[in-house]
Amino acid sequence: MSYTLEGNTGTWEIVVGLEVHAQVISKSKLFSGASTVFGGEPNSQVSLIDAGFPGMLPVINQTCVEQAVRTGLGLKARINLESRFDRKNYFYADLPTGYQISQFEHPIIGTGIVEIELADGSTREIGITRLHLEQDAGKLMHDQDPKRSFVDLNRAGVALMEIVSEPDIRSPEEAGAYLRKLRQILRYLETCDGNMEEGSMRADVNVSVRKAGEPMRTRCEIKNVNSIRFVMQAIEIEATRQIEIWEAGGEVDQETRLFDPHKGETRALRSKADAHDYRYFPDPDLLPLVIEQSWVDQIKQTLPELPDEKRARFQKDYGITAYDASVLVAEQSTADFYEKVAKGRDGKSAVAWVTGDFFAALNRTGKSIEESPVSADSLGAMLDLIADGTINGKIAKEVLEEMFETGEAPIEIIDRKGLRQVTDTGAIEAAADDIIGKNADKVEQYKGGKDKLFGFFVGQVMKATAGKANPAIVNDILRKKLDG
Amino acid sequence: MLTDLTIAQASEGLRKKEFSAVELTKAHTDAVETLNGRINAYITVTSDLALEAAKKADAQLVSGDAPALTGIPLGIKDLFCTNGVRTTAASKIIGNFVPPYESTVTAKLLENGAIFLGKTNLDEFAMGSANLTSAFGGVENPWHRKGDPSVMVPGGSSGGSAAAVAAHIAMGATGTDTGGSIRQPAAYCGIVGLKPTYGRCSRWGTIAFASSLDQAGPMTRTVEDAAIMLTAMAGHDPKDSTCADIAVPDYRAACGRSLKGLRVGIPAEYRAPGMSEEILAVWQKGIDLLREAGCEIVDVSLPHTKYGLATYYIIAPAECSSNLARYDGVRFGERAEGATSLDDLYEKTRHNGFGEEVRRRILMGTYVLSAGYYDAYYLKAQKVRTLIQRDFTHAFEKVDVLLTPTAPTAAFARDEKPEDPVQMYLNDIFTVPASMAGQPAMSVPVALDSKGLPLGLQLIGKHFDEETIIAVGSALEKAAGFTARPDLRAGVSA
C-alpha cells in the first residue's frame, strides 16, 4: 500500500521525518536537584542553576542518563559509551543561561529501529537516527499582565530526550503509527509518560514531497505539534501546500513553520536566512559523559518485554490473531490483565471476553483498567464457569454486568440469582414438547423445508428456561423431536 | 606591626595569645580605611562583618579548637560569590548583585576560620591585565618607580588582591587565574601568586569567565602562606563536575623540602626576542640560585609556546561569550529602562552594563563560534591547545618543574597603557601556556629592577603536583632573599 497525493502534473509521494521531544521520567532535572513535578506554582521548582545565577554549575543527573540508555535499548539502538554535552547559544527570556545544554555532535544514542503496524496488517521499519539528552526551556506567560510577559522556570532544565527518525515515513498514517508505537515503547520502558496534552511529548515534523524516484526536495519543519492527530493533519496540509508551489513553478523555501489546527494551515515562522546561528560548542562545565558497557548490560537485564515481542508471544502462546494481540499490547496494563485471564485457559475465549464485554463495560463506566471493579482473577473464574458448563455464554454476559456493579465473585452471583445452567434433559424435553405443541403451524412449515425456523424453536426453549438451558442439549433434543 | 606579619607568623601569635584576632583584624580594617581610598584595592569593604567574625575567632582560639586560618584577615576577589555580601565582578551589569549563596572556595576558607575584610577589585569579569577595566575604577600598585610618583598598574585581573596583599591591607587574598590573572599581578606587586592545577579548586560559586581555564588560587606575601591558604581552598566538590576527586595534601609540609637532584627545565621558547635584559638577568639569577640549591638545570623545548596567546584569545572569548549570556537584565542585575522589545532590552542592558573590553571579548567569542568560522578558529584552537598540552607532557618526562619569567616586563604606569588591545594581551605571553595546559604555576618575587619595581619568576609544575612548585618556590624565595616592600603600605605612608 502506498500513499500518494495527486497533483496537476502527476503523482507525488511525501517524505517525512519526525523529531520527538520526550520528557524523561525523573524526580529531578537534568542538571539540578529541582523537582520535575507537573503543575506546581510558577517558579516554585527552580534551583539557582536553573535560573542561571552567576557561578552556578550543572551536574549531570544519573537517572536521566539511565533513562536515555533504557530508551536506546528499547529502540534497539546503538548505545554510545562516550557522548558529550554542547551549548546551543541563543537569547530568549525562557532560557536563563542564554544557552541550552544539549548533545549536538556526540549523542548518547545512535541508530535504532521502530517497527510500525499499518491498518492493512502490514509492518514497516522506521529508522531512528539518534537520541540525545537536552534541557527543556521555561515558559513565557503573556496573559497575566497587559504590558509585561511573565516567566515560569519550573520546566527550565527538565530533561528531554530528542528522538530523531530517519526520513522513512511516507504517509500521515505511518507518522501516526510511528508516534503511537514510540509512545507505547516509552510507556513500557517507563522513560516518558507520553502525555501529549501536558506537553511531555511533542513533535517537530519535517515534510517534503517528490515525484517517484526523485531525490529529496527542500523540506520544511513544522515545530511543536502536540497531538498525533495534528501531526497527521499537518503532514497532509503541508504536503499539499508544497505540491501547489512546485506545480505552479515555484520553489519551496527551507523554513520553520507552525501548524494552526483551527485554520487548518501551516504558517511560516522563520526562514532559513533568519535561522539562529546557535554557535554550538562543547560545554566546558561538563566532562565527556562516559558510561560502562557493564552498566548498559545491567540496565538491559531490567528491560521489560516490549510490545513487539509481547505481541508475537501472545499470538504463539495463546493462539490469537495479530490484530487481537496488537489491541492487547497497546497498553502494558491491558496486556498484563489479559495474560492473567488467559493463563491456563482458552486464549481465544479470553481475548473475546477481555476486548469484548469487559472493555465495553469499562467504557460504559468510564473506568480505566487499573480501576476496574472486576479483577483479572475474577474474570478468569467466570471463564472457568463457562468452560465447566456451570453457566452458558449468554448468562455469563449478565453475570459480568453484575460483577461490575457489585464486585462480587461470579459464583456468588450465579448462586444468589439461580443462574446455573439447566442440563436436566427431562426438564428441557418438557419445555420442548410444550413449545412444539403450541406451535403446530411452525412445525408444519419447518417440516415443509423452512429450516431457518429451527432457531425459533431454540430461542423459545431458551426463553422458557430463562436462558439457563444448556444450548447444546436444547439443540440435540429439538433435532430428535423435529427431524426424527 | 601586626600588618607586617605573614599568615604563618600571625597564626602562631594568635595561638600564643600574643595578640587577639580582634586586634589583628582591627589593625587591618584600620589600614584598609586609611589606604583604600587611594589604592582602591577593595570594591566593597566589610570591616564590621570582619570584626564580628574576629570575636568568634577569639572564642574559638580560647576553646583550642581552631582550624588553620582562624582569625586570619583575607581579601576576597570580587568574583567569588559571598552570601549576603555584594558581588560585582567589577561590572556595572551586576554592580548591586547580592548572592544568596557562598562559593565553595570562600566557604572552605570560612570553615577554616578565615576572616574576610572585603571584596577586592579586579578587571571587569576578570578580563584584563592591568586592572584598568573595572567599573569601580582602577587599582594603584603600591610600588612606584624610584623618584617617580607615576601611578603604576597592579597587573590583572586579580590586581586588587595583589595590591591589597602588597600594601599589607590583607594578609592574603584569593585570586582567580584564567590566563595569568593571579601570577602576573603577583609579579607586578612583588608577592607570591599560585594558580593551582585546573580542577584543584572548585569553580562553584565563582563567576565564570572561561570555564575550561578559570582556577582559583592564593595570593600571599610568602610561599608558605600560599601553601597554607591552598590547603584550605582546594578539594573535591561534587557541585563542580570538573573539580578533581584527589586528596589534598598539607601543602605547607612541602616548604623547605630538599631540592637535591630535582630537575628544573628552562624552556628555550620563553627567551623571546626583544625581551628586556633585566628580565633575562633575573631569570638567570633564578637559574643560578636553584642550581646552588642542588637542582639539575635542564634545557627543554615547548615548541608550541608561540601559539599560546593566539589560541587563548580564541578559546577564552568563545567561552566568555556564552558564559556572559546570562547577564540579560531578565532575572537579576541591572536592567535597562525604556526597552521596546525583548531584543531591545538585551541590547540596551548589555551595552550599558558591560564595559568596552568585555564587549570586545564577547564579540570576538561570538565571531569565532559562528557558523562558517567555528572550524577555522575554535576547532583549530582546540587542536593547538592539545599540542601545547603535549609540549608540557613531553617536557615533564625530562624535568620536575619549569622555571620561566612570569611577565615580559615589570609593572607599567597607568598612563603608559597601550592603546592597542593586542599589546595589552602580550602581558600574558608567559602565563597563558600553563593555563591552556591546566598546569599548576606560581609566581615568586625574586628581585627589583633598576627602577625599583619587583620582578617575579614563574614555576610551572606537573598536574596536581603543587607540592613540587611549593618546595622549589620556597627555596627560591629563601635564596633570593626578597625582602623589599612597597613604599605605599600599612603603617608607612598615609
TrEMBL record, chain A:
Q: Which Gene3D superfamilies match?
A: 1.10.10.410, GatB domain, N-terminal subdomain
Q: Which reaction does it catalyse?
A: L-glutamyl-tRNA(Gln) + L-glutamine + ATP + H2O = L-glutaminyl-tRNA(Gln) + L-glutamate + ADP + phosphate + H(+); L-aspartyl-tRNA(Asn) + L-glutamine + ATP + H2O = L-asparaginyl-tRNA(Asn) + L-glutamate + ADP + phosphate + 2 H(+)
Asn/Gln amidotransferase domain residues? 336-482
Xref: Pfam families: GatB_N (PF02934), GatB_Yqey (PF02637)
Instruction: Write down the EC number.
Output: 6.3.5.-
Coiled-coil segments? none
Presence of the UniProt keyword ATP-binding in the record: yes
Matches recorded under InterPro entries: Asn/Gln-tRNA_amidoTrfase_suB/E, Asn/Gln-tRNA_Trfase_suB/E_cat, Asn/Gln_amidotransferase, Asn/Gln_tRNA_amidoTrase-B-like, GatB, GatB_C_1, GatB_Yqey_C_2, Gln-tRNA_amidoTrfase_suB_CS
Q: What does this protein do?
A: Allows the formation of correctly charged Asn-tRNA(Asn) or Gln-tRNA(Gln) through the transamidation of misacylated Asp-tRNA(Asn) or Glu-tRNA(Gln) in organisms which lack either or both of asparaginyl-tRNA or glutaminyl-tRNA synthetases. The reaction takes place in the presence of glutamine and ATP through an activated phospho-Asp-tRNA(Asn) or phospho-Glu-tRNA(Gln).
What family is it from?
A: Belongs to the GatB/GatE family. GatB subfamily.
**HAMAP family in the cross-refs:** GatB
In its UniProt entry, what is this protein called?
Aspartyl/glutamyl-tRNA(Asn/Gln) amidotransferase subunit B
Native species of this protein?
A: Acetobacter conturbans
Q: Gene encoding this polypeptide?
A: gatB
Automatic annotation (TrEMBL), chain B:
State the Pfam families in the record: Amidase (PF01425)
Where along the sequence do coiled-coil regions lie? none
Could you say which EC number(s) this protein's record lists?
Answer: 6.3.5.7
The family classification in the record reads: Belongs to the amidase family. GatA subfamily.
In terms of HAMAP family, this protein maps to: GatA
Q: What quaternary structure, including any partners, is listed in this protein's UniProt entry? A: Heterotrimer of A, B and C subunits.
Primary role: Allows the formation of correctly charged Gln-tRNA(Gln) through the transamidation of misacylated Glu-tRNA(Gln) in organisms which lack glutaminyl-tRNA synthetase. The reaction takes place in the presence of glutamine and ATP through an activated gamma-phospho-Glu-tRNA(Gln).
Protein name (Swiss-Prot/TrEMBL): Glutamyl-tRNA(Gln) amidotransferase subunit A
- Organism (species): Acetobacter conturbans
Taxonomy, top ranks, is: Bacteria, Pseudomonadati, Pseudomonadota, Alphaproteobacteria, Acetobacterales
User: Which gene name belongs to this protein?
Assistant: gatA
